[in-house]
Structure formats: C-alpha cells, structure tokens
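I am still getting used to backbone structure tokens and would like to learn alongside you. To get us started, please write out a protein record for me. Start from the sequence, derive the backbone structure tokens from it, and show both lines together. Once you have written the record down, we can walk along the chain together:
***
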Amino acid sequence: MSAHRRALLRALLLVLLASALAWRLTDTSAVIATAAFGPAIIYATLVALLDRRDRARTTLSFAAFLCGAVLATSLAGALNDRLPAWIGRVVPSADAHLLAPMLGAPVVEEAAKSVVLLVLLLLWREQTADARDGIVRGALVGLGFAAMENVLYLSLAALQGGPAGLARGIYLRGVLYGLNHAAFTATTGAALGAAQRNLARLARAMVVGVGFGLAVAQHVLWNAVASEAIINVLCSPLIAGGPCRSVPSPSSLYVTAPILVAVFIGPGVVTLLAITALPRSRP
C-alpha cells in the first residue's frame, strides 16, 4: 500500500471513529460521559508520554484510544451477547451463564482488542517497530475500551446509588481499576511489537501467541478471582451478582480494595513498565 493511500485511510478512520463515538454517546448524559472518559484520558496521556516523539505518533495515539472505545467494544459486545448460548451447547445453562463472564468474556474481549491492534499495525506499520511501541498502542486501546465499558457501569451505579454511588463507581472503575484493560492489551501489544523484529515466521507466531495467552490469563484471573474478591469485600451480597448489603466501609474502599488491585494487576503493570525502560534497538 502506498504512503499516500495509507495516509488517506488513516484520516478516514479517525473521522469515522470520532463520529461513531459521538453517535454512541448521544443518549449519555455529560456527567456520565465525563466520569467514564475523564480518568481514562488522564491515564492515556500518561501512557502517551512513554512514546512522545512526533505528531504522527500523536495521531496514532488518538486512533488507538478511539479504536478501543468504538471498534473493540462493538465487536466484543456482539460476541459477548452470544457467549452464554455458545457455552450452553456443551454445559448446563446455569453453568454457561457463570462461565461466560469468567472464562468466555476474557477470550472474546482480548481477541477483539487484538484485532484492533492488527488494524493499527497495518495502517501505522512504520510506527510500530518494537515491544515499547506495542505496549503503548495496546494500553491506549485498552483504556479506550475501559472508558466505553464504564459508560454502562457508571450509569448503573448512578441509577442504583445516586450521586454517592456514582462517586464510588468513578473511584473504583475509573481510578482503581483504570489500568486493568490497559495492562491486558498492552501484553498482547508487547508481543506484536516484539514480533516486528527480524524473526522467522514461526517465531513471530509463537511470540504473538504467548503474548495473547498471557493477556487472556491475566483477564481470566481478574474476572474469576480478583473482581469477585473485591465485590465480596465491598458489598457482601447475599447471592452472586445480587445487590450490596451495606455501604462499603472506608477501610475496604481505600485499603483492602487497592491492595487487591495491586496484587492482581501490579505485577503485569510493573513488568510492562520495565520493558518500556529497556534501551531501544530499532530494526
């Protein structure tokens, strides 16, 4: 593909993504939209600082965030809706509804975000040459995904808990959990970036496969263990998925929950930051 045609496709993609995002947020209040996207944009700005160079990379950063918010969430949402039925073909229906969010959703969502990363790689190939580039791109896709996902969760938090519920939702989902999708997808991004080195085709496939597997493993661990533990600490629901029995205590909100997030997300984030700190060796 010629450079001119690639530039036109990039511009068209940005326009379409921005328009699609505006359309999807049409029925969302300004308060909820700001609450969902504000923390993610702050995190995205910090991530972009890992790769501050020229305007072309700034454009790519916007594209990655918008792709995560629009393309990845649309693809994952369509597939997630079908997961219980698909899983229900091999296990009882009750088990299918339990396994879908814990095991199925991580695979679907990481696959959707990986497709987005591949699209970005095709259109901005010269801007993705090593693991650090891939980490930045993957983190931005994950942050966009989390922001759009939080529109729904924060709307429910406001509906069920009023202003206090919304404030807790912003703290938990926007701030405390704000880097979970970024860490998952940055793991795949690191593998895709590393695969751009002068490797044999089989070696590239193995690197990408391992990266994607690690991203899914982190996501499964978060959905199946970490999030359940945090819900039990904060809510103590009588039944799984039921309403909270009481307002979370300050110690559970500001001590226990952050510790659990650090235990489950911290190692991945620290590892990715360590990779970005390595000296760059361009191909």
